[in-house]
Amino acid sequence: MQPQPPGTSRFTRTPYLLVAPLTVVLIVFFGIPLVLVVVVSFFDLDKFDIIPTFVLTNYTELFESSLTYRLYAKTITYALIVWAITLVIGFTVSYFLVFHVRSVLWQMALFLLCTVPFWTSNVIRMISWIPFLGRHGLFNQSLIALGVTDHPLEFLLFSNFSVVIAYVHLFSLFMIVPIFNSMARIDRTVIEAAVDGGASRTRVITGIVIPLSKTGIALGSIFVIALVMGDFFVVKVMSGGQSSSVVAAMSNEIAILQYPPAAANAVCLLIIVMLMVAAIMRLVDVRRELSG
Amino acid sequence: MANNATGGHKVTRRQVLKGAVATAAAAAGSRITGFPTVWAQNIRDIKLVQAGGSYSAIIDIGRQATKDLGFQVEMQSAAHDALLNRFVTQPNSVDIADMEFFFLYHLVPRGVLHTIDLKKYKWWDKVVPIFTKGEYPDGRKVSRQGTLPFKVQYVEAAESSKFAKGPTQWATAIPTVYNADTLGIRPDLVKRPIEHWRELLNPEFKGRSAILDVPSIGIMDAAMAIESRGDVKYGDKGNMTKEEIDKTIKILVDAKKSGQFRAFWTTFDESVNLMAAGEVVIQSMWSPAVTAVRARGIPCYYVPLKEGYRAWASCIAPMKHLTGLKLDAAYEYLNWYQSGWQGGFIAKQGYYSSVPETAKKFLTDDEWGYWYDGKAAKNDIKDPYGNLMEKAGEKRDGGAFWERMGKVACWNTLMDESRYMVRKWNEFVAA
Amino acid sequence: MARSSNGRPWTFYALAAFFTLFVLFLYGPMSAIFILSFQGPTGGLTFPMNGVSLHWFKALVAQQRSGDFVGSFSRSIMLAIIVLAITVVISIMAGLAFRYRFRGATAVFYMAIASLIMPGLLLGLGVGLMFQFAHVSPAWFSSALGAQLTWTLPFGLLIMFAVFSRFNRAYEEAARDLGASPWQTLWLVVLPILLPGIIGVALFGFTLSYDEFPRTLIPIGSRNTLPLEIWAMTTDVTSPALYALGTLTTAVSFVVIAVALTSIAVIQRRRARRQRRRTDEAEAGSARTGRPPGSVRAPTRSGDA
């Protein structure tokens, strides 16, 4: 294992210079706002104004309210379900594209075919589910025309089902791209050697493909989980307002300028999702993969 | 004033122009075509940015204003919650705030708005007395439940941030667009007359009703329905106590769990789609949404209910950071706004103008008859873009202006217990 | 994995079927959009359809109550391109940096992850406040840009990690041994090999910015980007012009991709032809000199492979 790229001396300023732009942008546009948010989370609130003091009421209210736990449970459940589904989709689609599609041109073409929907604005794509899944929507109409059912399926829209479907629809690309990337770099000779050695297809997948694409899987998981945990308008619109998420509750508070409780909630969310990500990183050390 | 070489005072060009125009304007009697009455070479460089809801900050209005006034007016539409946050956290990014009256509760104490000197505004005595005096022309007091605009209309002094109890010279904002909201129904699917707010919670419509998901408004619609049913008697639906909030939310949660609601809508679009697609047959709605559904050939009725309407009103105000020429331009703009073109424009979408007299000049007799007088339309009524709104022979739901605005039960609002209310509302949504 | 001769294993068909279903799933709701965008002037956002016309495509371009599509669309595109460029450059640099071991690497890494996770709404609020305190006017090309970068840079960085983790150092060493300077190695060897990954970063950067909503909502300044304009509109206007927009963007993306793919196919074919020509020349040369083919030629760029 090489600690540094070849041909460089032991101490060099290069990495610091290279990483400087990233660090500066992040500190200015993320670090400072984050500090502001943490500070505000300790402020107090009355009808008209935010009072700059140091109180713990926002946090105590947060932890004492059963709403908090219910919302987190709900959002985490959504995140896990969506993660599982996108993982299966992402893995299968990538596997198909990498190992079963022969020409690179076709690989790219099919890959890009999957990405085209993402060029249309999220908002438009999300609201398009409504004419599709509604009582008189396209899907129900086709089902009825095909004789599968005789009255429209109501649970298709404004339910947990529609929320999960919308999430999968919007975020599956974020799982496909990293996994595709990882899989494409697997050395075919290794697989051929295994096959020659008598390994079954399943054994090849579990023993070679999955371990060698774990960086991609880990990255895709981090993306999807972060996206679902941070969402507020998909869940509002697709559930018909009957369901909520952590950030949706936050957005209601922000709408009427109640910053301190929203800020406290945000700090909590940040910590919890960081823990989830840390757990993923335990399993796959994304950073070590880099220098190895 | 600059000194010139001879040591005397040099009169600036602006002063000369101002004097000349002032005399000319006085002579012309400042007709509507006399804009701008403040005339300087550099006023053409002024740009005013108005930020408001998309029903009010309409591009066409900005364009007409630019044409009539000579300086630039730009419109930026934004959703309500983002709007309030921007006014408070980045006041310099907006010049004219276009908002609902209850925003004033947030904005005036924070000092982000410029008070309006009513002496510089020419239409105040023509503004509907609901706003200027808080009463109807016959002297009756308008319902004070919720945030009656009159309550936040005036401040005590030019630099004050305390609301005055009665009319003063200093206004917080100019009322512009307003309407009375009620429930909308699909008469073809409901098949019987609806007369009370409580029908919203009627199990007969289980799974086919909806309310709006904005906490501060949705809870009032719910309260209207609940009070109509007799479950709770409210002191002030627009300013509930903690117990009243608890009771309301409990009833809502029970209704939700029993499957009463098909959905809660957040955007205008959703309300139209829900109704048009037949997903719901009774819901809280906004007037243009009803028209939008009807424009698609689907029957929809905006029901005048016995308990009255929930009203709302929008207003505009210059932001505090405006000074000098820009502030003058802002006053010009305010005066232009109420001079009729804007009033006529929004009337064709079903909203009322606070100075109906001037709006009348920009509407045909037929349109005025339909929108304001509740008369049957003689010809097809069209919106500003030529789309059909209503067929000839139809009357406006609810009737004439005073029929509707005369029966206001409560106004859109910000409650004292809003923090508690939002939390309970979140619980309701998550239930 | 038995892929002897030309026969495809049954798994191919199973997976192909899955893939097809997935594509149908992706494009399904889009089909509702396509159909509804061709409605007549009385149409709405749901079925049943009301007439057939190109009315809404025209409405899209006309700047009217239906929203300022043209303006906000062009702003969104410009912003997305700027974000793309900045994200690619900074992500590549940062990816290169992380190959070393340097102090603070963990901190920067976790800061990037935290930036990804932070609820966009609050981050946007914070950025807006920051600008207000600094007495700088927020605008789509400054405050909104910065807010969006906190979203795209972590993505870019993580993708670069994935890309570098499979990068074979041997190429770099070979270039070194042949006398290339670090800069040449980077520009002529590393980057071309990583090009697909870099394109991935660019793609993400562009789409993430173009679609970005919560972070841009508050610090936007006085002119909207497309998602904000759409969102503002849905609070008032019901308009299939939105759907016309969806149909158009999809059509445009298809055209762009078709063009990209055809050019790649053409380039590939040309390279193959060039390669064949060189091999022929080399063999002809070795036949003349009696030395093995290839030894008389200068080393080619490994990017040619």
General description of the model:
The complex is a heterotrimer of chains A (292), B (431) and C (305). Chain A has 292 residues and is an all-alpha fold. Helices cover 72% and strands 1% of the residues of chain A. Chain A is built from 15 helices and 2 strands. In chain A, helix 9 (188-196) runs antiparallel to helix 10 (201-212). Chain A is globular, with a radius of gyration of 24 Å. The termini of chain A are close together. Chain B has 431 residues and is an alpha/beta fold. Helix content of chain B is 36%, strand content 17%. In chain B, strands 3, 4, 5, 9, 10, 11, 12, 13, 14, 15 and 18 form an 11-stranded mixed beta sheet that branches. In chain B, strands 6-8-7 form a 3-stranded antiparallel beta sheet, with no helix packed on it. Chain B has a two-stranded antiparallel sheet with strand order 1-2. Chain B is globular, with a radius of gyration of 23 Å. Mean pLDDT of chain B is 83; it is low at 1-11 and 24-34. Chain C contains 11 helices and no strands. Chain C is mainly α. Residues 1-5 and 298-305 of chain C have low confidence and may be disordered. Chains in contact: A-B, A-C, B-C. Chains A and B meet through helix 3 and helix 13 of A and helix 3, helix 4, strand 11, helix 9 and helix 16 of B.
Broad structural category of chain C: mainly alpha
Q: Which whole number gives the mean pLDDT of chain A?
A: 83
Indicate the structural class of chain A.
Answer: mainly alpha
Main sheet of chain C? Answer: none
Q: Output mean pLDDT of chain C.
A: 79
Overall spatial form of chain C: globular
- Distance from N terminus to C terminus of chain C (CA atoms, Å) equals 26 Å
Strand content of chain C: under 5%
The helical percent of chain A reads: over 70%
Which CATH first-tier class of the largest domain in chain C would you pick?
Mainly Alpha
Largest beta sheet: strand ordering of chain A: 1-2
Gist?
Chain A has 292 residues and is mostly helical.
Ordered list of secondary-structure elements with their pairings:
The complex is a heterotrimer of chains A (292), B (431) and C (305).
Chain A: H1 14-40, E1 44-45, E2 50-51, H2 57-64, H3 66-100, H4 104-115, H5 122-127, H6 129-133, H7 138-145, H8 160-184, H9 188-196, H10 201-212, H11 214-229, H12 233-238, H13 246-255, H14 259-283, H15 286-291
Antiparallel strand pairs in A: 1-2
Helix pairs in contact in A: 2-14, 3-8, 3-11, 8-11, 9-10, 11-14, 13-14
Chain B: E1 2-3, E2 9-10, H1 13-28, E3 47-52, H2 59-69, E4 72-77, H3 80-89, E5 96-100, H4 103-110, E6 116-117, H5 129-132, E7 154-155, E8 170-171, E9 174-185, H6 187-190, E10 209-212, H7 215-229, H8 242-257, E11 261-265, H9 268-276, E12 282-285, H10 287-295, E13 301-302, E14 309-318, H11 324-337, H12 341-347, E15 352-353, H13 356-361, H14 365-371, E16 381-382, E17 388-390, H15 401-405, E18 408-411, H16 418-430
Parallel strand pairs in B: 3-4, 3-5, 10-11, 10-12, 14-18
Antiparallel strand pairs in B: 1-2, 5-14, 6-8, 7-8, 9-12, 9-13, 9-14, 9-15, 16-17
Helix pairs in contact in B: 7-8, 8-16, 9-10
Chain C: H1 10-36, H2 55-61, H3 69-97, H4 105-117, H5 120-133, H6 143-165, H7 169-177, H8 182-211, H9 214-217, H10 226-234, H11 241-289
